[in-house]
Amino acid sequence: MIILNNIKYSGKARTSTASINNKEIRTPFFMPVATKAAARHLTIKDLRDADVDAVIVNSMLLSLKPGKLFVNNCGGIHKFMGFNRVIFADSGGFQVMRPFFKSINNNEIEFYSPYDKSVHKITPEKCIDNQFLIDSDVAMVLDHMPLFNATKENVVESMQRTFEWAKIQKKYHDELKKQMDTQQNLFGIIQGGYDLELRKQALSDITSLDFDGYALGGLAIGETREEMNKVFHEIIHMMPDNKLRYIMGVGHPIDILTAIENGADCFDSVYPTQIARHNHILTNQGIIKITQSQYKDDQKPLDENCDCYVCKNFSRAYIRFITKIDEPIAYQMKSYHNVYWMMNFMKKIRDAIFENNFDELKKKYLDILDKN
Ligand SMILES: [Zn+2]
């Protein structure tokens, strides 16, 4: 069960204390990605030290290895990965974007295992089984995400399929919950590409099914920032205001600010850890590339305004040096700082909304981040 308590607004931006299966989490929040039950280069202790309250795992990949029953026998995903806060599970619909996608029809998605290239099928019911058995707090429906360059005909087809699958999965999930007496939440996913009328139709279809929360999918897949912003402006505020509004796969701080300005509550993305692996560091002066020669003798921390463990103890010169000689610990340090920075960024956003000065904070960050 999810309840949004004490909702406060600053324009359309909103903050609340969400209770997700009795775990309290302040919104808006950002979820680092732990695809295979581990965040890349970060321990669970690192995540908790950085105040990470929620992560997302990929149920389809976990169903291949170690297997959904295995995770279930280990006591569920929280116990298995040692993270007792909120865990979302993704359905696998995003795989249509990936190289191991094979085909899709009205009954299933076919894909190649990234482990051994064997062919697997995922049906709407199987997708629910995967997530139900790993016992995440939130499960996502299996959807058909249209690619960025899809024709209108393809987008309409994917919407109809997503709606049909959503109906099947809602009913099936309700039955399982009743039988097993559990509290997992199921979110519907609103697709519809970049045609705003189609997005509105998808919103109307999916919200008619009374899910526990709603996600906007099919964003940050190659479109321009302007195209993404149009969807944010037109659609987010129309999503039910008594449910969590989740923007999937969006992680650039500028896009997070725009989505929140329009009423978004939560996000997931590989962004902070992925850019860390490419040596890009989030700072309150903009994004810097730590391998550049200008940081060779720089004794300052990665970000002078950051109080994370890495910034309190190490210099840019040191992080640059261990990066250049390819010490494995450099990946952890850069990833840790970036995730910590994102968590702090989200906290500042929540505080600004609470104090009703979100616009001021947004302007400040746009001035900093637009330079990059
Ligand atoms: Zn730091």
Termini Cα gap? 40 Å
> The biggest beta sheet, please?
8 strands, parallel
Hetero groups in this structure are: zinc ion
Radius of gyration: 20 Å
List the uncertain runs: none
Number of strands: 16
The number of helical runs is: 14
Q: Round the mean pLDDT to the nearest integer and report it.
A: 95
Shape: globular
**Sheet with most strands: strand arrangement:** 4-14-13-12-11-10-6-5
Order of helices and strands: EEEEHEHHHEEEEHEHEHEHEHEHEEHHHH
Structural class: alpha/beta
| Share of helix, binned | 40-55%
Task: Estimate what percentage of residues fall within beta strands.
Answer: 15-25%
Topology diagram in text:
Layout: E1 2-10, E2 13-20, E3 23-27, E4 29-32, H1 44-49, E5 54-58, H2 59-64, H3 68-73, H4 77-81, E6 86-90, E7 101-104, E8 109-112, E9 119-122, H5 124-134, E10 138-140, H6 152-180, E11 185-190, H7 196-207, E12 213-216, H8 225-235, E13 244-247, H9 253-261, E14 266-269, H10 271-277, E15 280-283, E16 286-289, H11 309-313, H12 316-324, H13 328-354, H14 358-369
Parallel strand pairs: 4-14, 5-6, 6-10, 10-11, 11-12, 12-13, 13-14
Antiparallel strand pairs: 1-2, 2-3, 7-8, 8-9, 15-16
Helix pairs in contact: 5-6, 6-7, 7-8, 9-14, 10-13, 12-13, 13-14
The protein binds zinc ion.
